[in-house]
Amino acid sequence: MAAADANRIDRGDLEVIDTIDGLDEAIGRLAAGEGPVAIDTERASGYRYSDRAYLVQIFRRGSGTMLLDPIPFGTLAPIAEVIADEEWILHAATQDIPCMREIDLHPKRLFDTELASRLLGKSHVGLGAVVEELLGIELAKAHSADDWSQRPLPESWLAYAALDVEHLVDVRDLLAAELLEANKAEWAAEEFDDILGRSFEQDRSERWRRLSGLHALRSPRQLAVARELWRARDAYAQETDIAPGRLVPDRALTAAARMLPRTKAQLAASKEFTGRASRSELDRWWAAIELGRETTDLPPRSLNDPDRLPPPKAWAAKNPAADARLKVARPAVAEIAETISMPTENLLTPSFLRRAAWEPAGLTTDALARQLRDLGARQWQTSLTAPVIATAFVEADQAVQDSLPSDG
């Protein structure tokens, strides 16, 4: 099957809209269109510190395709206003909504074609796979990891970006019909509303713990140095808007923390301390190492989070009743997921089940449904899973009681 021809859909041209006149024309075209609006964004996360959108693609029947450069405008609120009451179609919306919010694109109604595909139990849910399955069109995925912050953008990139939205409306219609036929339309609506209600804000205070190779650091002092190096790199990356790993890779930071160099010259001589900014910003990294060597604020090897559960493999020793509950409930939930042709993680987030098994709010369906909803589960999920989980927990608790030695 041949890749889709970039000219298959009449898009007018592939010029990027980056002027007020062009934006006004796009607004008029959108207003003249009809039906839902397909939207996608292109970022440069592998090249830039920020996760901002460097291109916004929009398609609507009767409007055609529009490629907007949001950088000159700062906000696309006028675009949002003209389509405010329409359904917005995105594929994997959680990836795009954070950067869309930065430029004032706030959907009120959403249809996520990737999530819909998951709820329908499709084996492959990437955009290319879904388009090929439903429409018989093969999309060429050649530029997803490119640097979309560069200007001007090559015409081949623009053709690729346009195709990401030009089929979404057709895909949405077919998926919506499948959801109705499978009695999953209301479930999907709950999921879409849940995405719209999320904040997507991240706490960066402990992000340094995600450094590759951190597990090889044994002492609190090494961890302190790694933390300060990460903070120094993060600040410099934000200042220059360059992806941190392109300045100094993780493995170089952890190698320096493991080595604990005594002098700046020793750091400079290290073959493991690599990266484009490893020598040009040597004073910055050395200052971070000195701070880590001198601080009295030594980080623990792991976070002392009272809400953090131990790994399930340790439950048998730490909480045998919880271990029994999880071992009975997990396959019961998986069986429901198989029955409705859906990945288990989309039926119920695994961490919600673990939390309920560790310390259930009760052993009744109502009590467990409330607990799961408080954790973030949707109504449709608790309606399906809470009765089965309640039965599993009662069965597991009874088995634990039966295994205890009797007083007689």
TrEMBL record:
GO molecular function per UniProt: 3'-5' exonuclease activity; nucleic acid binding; nucleotide binding
Family annotation (Pfam families): DNA_pol_A_exo1 (PF01612), DNA_pol_A_exoN (PF18305), HRDC (PF00570)
Gene Ontology biological process: nucleobase-containing compound metabolic process
PROSITE patterns per record: HRDC (PS50967)
Entry-linked InterPro entries: 3'-5'_exonuclease_dom, Exo_C, HRDC-like_sf, HRDC_dom, HRDC_dom_sf, RNase_D-like, RNaseH-like_sf, RNaseH_sf
CDD domains on file: RNaseD_exo
Coiled-coil ranges from the UniProt annotation: none
Source organism superkingdom: Bacteria
Region (Disordered): 296-317
Residues covered by the HRDC domain: 219-299
Xref: Gene3D superfamilies: HRDC domain, Ribonuclease H-like superfamily/Ribonuclease H
Listed PANTHER family: RIBONUCLEASE D (PTHR47649)
Full protein name: Ribonuclease D
Species for this entry: Gulosibacter macacae
